[in-house]
Amino acid sequence: MDGMEMMQDPVLRCEEINHVLGEGENQVHVLKDVSLALKPGNIYSIMGPSGCGKSSLLYLLGLLDRPTGGRIWIEDLEVTGLSDADYSHLRNLKIGFVFQFHFLLREFSALENIKVPMRRAGLLNDREMSERAAHLLDLVGLGDKLERLPGQLSGGEQQRVAIARSLANEPSVVLADEPTGNLDTANSNRVFDMMRGLAHDTGLTLLIVTHNAQIAQASDHALEMRDGRLV
Ligand SMILES: Nc1ncnc2c1ncn2[C@@H]1O[C@H](COP(=O)(O)OP(=O)(O)OP(=O)(O)O)[C@@H](O)[C@H]1O
Ligand SMILES: [Mg+2]
Hints:
Layout: H1 3-7, E1 12-21, E2 28-38, E3 43-47, H2 54-61, E4 69-74, E5 77-78, H3 84-94, E6 95-98, H4 110-121, H5 126-139, H6 155-166, E7 173-177, H7 185-202, E8 205-209, H8 213-218, E9 221-226, E10 229-230
Parallel strand pairs: 3-8, 3-9, 6-7, 7-8
Antiparallel strand pairs: 1-2, 1-4, 4-5, 9-10
Helix pairs in contact: 4-5, 4-6, 5-6
Bound molecules: adenosine-5'-triphosphate and magnesium ion.
């Protein structure tokens, strides 16, 4: 990393990440010497063929898993040696995650789904959580569907609930794994425009894995991954 990047205080940074999954004959060297620094308010996209390691990288940067080797910083805090409890605490407060498959709780309304990470953080009372969740759903254009169950929403609407949920605790960075993967072009562009608006309005940093070249082009930094390496 050069001096210029250091001065811009990345919100999330990794150095020389290596990751090996599986045992014995099935071992795969999934990530190879990956270094990356995400600057505040910027949108990054990652494209690359299926199986090249995109989701694995997001999981590590999102503190959902630990790398076999290398170092990770959230703002200026190195997380490498932290306990599991500190790791999850930091994840919940600083990072929003939009999964490749959205994982909404089926028996909870849109509003209640968004309150789940807030409840875990324990900073707001129930009324405050409901107000904030309603505000976030309004932001993603679902202000009139707060009480719907996921099964009563379209695929694109469910993705938008997942995006609203990723913003629940005002994270510094949102990591999104193909957030528009199951959407048609029009909805995919709409969801991306909305995310870009949020990034530019609130200084949120976005890292988006996508197979959509238009989205990659519209991001501030288009990264490419091949066989476990950023190229
Ligand atoms: N538990 C595991 N054990 C061994 N190999 C694994 C395991 N999980 C994933 N892999 C392998 O790691 C590699 C990277 O997987 P990853 O999910 O990061 O790919 P991806 O780039 O997100 O692909 P896609 O675009 O299909 O989502 C793949 O080759 C996959 O088969
Ligand atoms: Mg993936």
